[in-house]
Structures are given as C-alpha cells and as structure tokens.
Specification:
Largest sheet: 2 strands, antiparallel
Strand order of the largest sheet: 1-4
Number of domains: 1
CATH superfamily: NCX, central ion-binding region
CATH topology: A middle domain of Talin 1
CATH class: Mainly Alpha
Helix content: over 70%
Number of helices: 14
CATH architecture: Up-down Bundle
Oligomer: single chain
Structural class: mainly alpha
Distance between the termini: 55 Å
Number of strands: 4
Order of helices and strands: HHHHEHEHHHHHHEHEHH
Strand content: under 5%
C-alpha cells in the first residue's frame, strides 16, 4: 500500500467525522428555522444524504450489469442500519423513540420491506416496479411534511425550544440563516460521501496487504463502508443531544434505500434488477426480521437502552459470521445454523415479546 492510499485513508476518517458534525448542525438548525422537528429532518434530509453512497453505487452497478451488487448494497445496508448503527448509537447514549415512529414510520418500514420481498419473488424487480417505488418515496416525503405541519403551534414551539436548549449555538442565533444551514448540510454531505469513499478504499488496500480474500473484504469492509455516513451522522447526533434524529435517520434511510435507491436502479435499466435465490431465501428475510424486531424493542419504554444496543450488535456479528461460514462452506455452518435457528432466535423473540407485553400491560 503506497503513502497516498494511507494519506487518503486518514483524510477519509477526518472528513467523515467532521462532515457528520457539520451535517447534524446544519440539519438541526434547519429544523428550527423551518419549524420542522429534528425527527422529520432525520427522516428526510439526513436520511437522503446518508443514502447517497448507496444510490451512487447501485446506479453504477445497474448500468454495468451487476445486479447482485445493487441488490446486496440495499439489503446489506438496511440490515447494518438497524443492527449496527442503532447498536452503536445506543451504546453512546440511550435513544428516545417518538410515538409517531411506533404508529407510522416503523410499520411503514416493515410494510415496504414486505412489499419489496413480494415484488422480488419472481426473481427480479421490473422497470415499472422500480417506477412505483419512486412514486412511493415521493408519497412518503409528502405525507411526512404534511404530518409535521399538522402539529399544533404549542407542540412546534416546544420542539423548537427543546432543540435550542440542546444546541448551544442556537442560543446565539434565534433566527438562523436558511441559506447558511443549507450550505452546511451540502458541505456535510460532500465530506461524508468523499470521506467514506476514501476510508473504504484505504481499508480495502490494507485488507489486501494482510492477505484477506476479496470475498471477506466484500462481506465486511464494503458492506459496512456504505453505512459509514449513517454511523458518523448518528454518533454526531447523539453527542449533540439529538437522539430523535438518529432513529429518524435509520428508518428514513431504510425507506430511501428500498424506494429510492433500488427503485432508481430498477427504473434506470430496461431489464430491471435481478434477485438471486440466495437473497430471497436468506438476506431479504433477515432484513425484514431486523425491521420487525424494532417494534417490540422501540415499544418498551419508547427508547433503546444500552443492553438492547448490545443485542443489536451481537446479532449483526452473528449475521456476518453466518455469511463468512456460508461463503467459505465452513464445516461449522450446519451446527451454527441450527443453534441460531432453534435456540438463539426463538429465545430472543420470546424475550422481546414478553418485554413488549409487560410495557403494554403497564400502559406505556
């Protein structure tokens, strides 16, 4: 690995960190200036921006005739968003969940994931189906903005006051410049995307230097690499006290990935995007299971505690380990699969349902 690659790797980390901080600052102040909630900004502006790497990679893959990369990019990113990003963010600080997320956004994320699975059952996402997905993201954005505007003036003022208290800079600028905040968001997005690209390239070069195979690199570094903007933005939001923006970013990003990223990739090519049988049998069901798992976890106290963040991270590690065992046809794969399928997953599901039932009984 040459010095230039190493320098870009270090610069990528710096750009990623600084870009995330700038993006969160600009998005939070934009919410104040426009009377929008930080949750809505997380569901829209930040989610769209941090999905930009997935959009670029998927479109490029679709045009080059590499549908597996386009599909795997979306499915793998959605799994990482829930299990990895929420897990890391919850370790930084427990995440608060709004009731609107439980009533509308989480069920919508689950429904969109299920519809995607149904559309993919015939082995491909056709061009016209991609067009429907694009219409779906337009409808979702319109609905989110409409719902935000329906909040009463008292609720809007309470949200603005709370956000100003959390952000020290907002106390100095009661009327932040709209143009300035948009510039901050654009700069933050550019730094995130460029930083993520440089960081991934450097990490791949170092992995090759250590003798890791292309398969292991793709299953680990590349899969996590496209989620680096979401990770950086989420940690920055936690540190600045905007926890509601973190969950909004994850849910919004998952919706953008399916409806916008995969929709655009499918609509951009005449043949659409093909879906492999292995993705239908394993990866897409895992993505749906991760989305469904959000409901009982979010419902218990309307927050994600640190132990639940650890649970998310453990399951993400288990998912990566399965991918590696399966790709290398390791002898431990049958035993590992049996333990996960018949012991770990049922025990986790029963525990989460009991916790959700107790919260429901208490009237939480």
């Amino acid at each position: 690995m040459d010095l230039l690659t190493l320098a870009l790797f270090i610069l990528g980390f710096v750009f990623l960190t600084y870009g995330a901080d700038v993006l969160v600052q600009g998005a939070a102040k934009l919410a104040i200036g426009l009377g929008m909630t930080p949750l809505l900004v997380g569901l829209t502006v930040v989610a769209f921006g941090t999905s930009a790497p997935e959009l670029a990679i998927s479109l490029q893959s679709a045009f080059k005739g590499q549908p597996d990369i386009a599909l795997g990019n979306v499915v793998g990113s959605n799994i990482a968003n829930v299990l990895l990003i929420l897990g890391i963010a919850a370790l930084v600080t427990p995440l608060t969940i709004s009731r609107k997320m439980i009533r509308i956004d989480i069920p919508l994320m689950i429904a969109v994931s299920l519809v995607f699975f149904l559309l993919a059952l015939d082995g491909h996402i056709a061009r016209w189906e991609g067009g429907l997905m694009l219409l779906g993201i337009v409808a979702y954005l319109s609905f989110s903005i409409f719902e935000s505007r329906r909040e009463s003036p008292d609720v809007q003022q309470e949200i603005i006051d709370e956000t100003r208290v959390k952000d020290k800079d907002s106390a100095k600028t009661a009327q932040p410049s709209l143009l300035k905040n948009i510039v901050f968001i654009v700069i933050g997005l550019v730094l995130l995307i460029v930083g993520a690209q440089w960081l991934v390239n450097g990490a791949v070069a170092m992995a090759r230097l250590l003798g890791l195979s292309e398969l292991i690199i793709g299953l680990t570094i590349i899969a996590i690499g496209t989620s680096l903007p979401e990770i950086a933005a989420s940690i920055a939001a936690c540190l600045r006290g905007h926890q509601e923006m973190v969950v909004g970013n994850v849910v919004g990003s998952n919706l953008f990935n399916i409806l916008l990223v995969l929709g655009a990739a499918s609509a951009a090519t005449p043949a659409g995007v093909s879906v492999s049988s292995s993705a239908l049998a394993f990866d897409i069901p895992v993505m749906i299971a991760a989305a469904i798992a959000c409901l009982p976890i979010f419902f218990t106290g309307y927050r994600i505690d640190r132990w639940e963040g650890v649970l998310f991270l453990l399951f993400y590690a288990a998912y990566l380990l399965y991918l590696i065992f399966n790709a290398t046809t390791h002898s431990l794969l049958p035993a590992y699969s049996a333990i996960m399928l018949w012991f770990v997953l049922p025990l986790t599901a029963v525990t989460l349902l009991l916790l959700a039932g107790r919260a429901w009984h208490r009237g939480d």
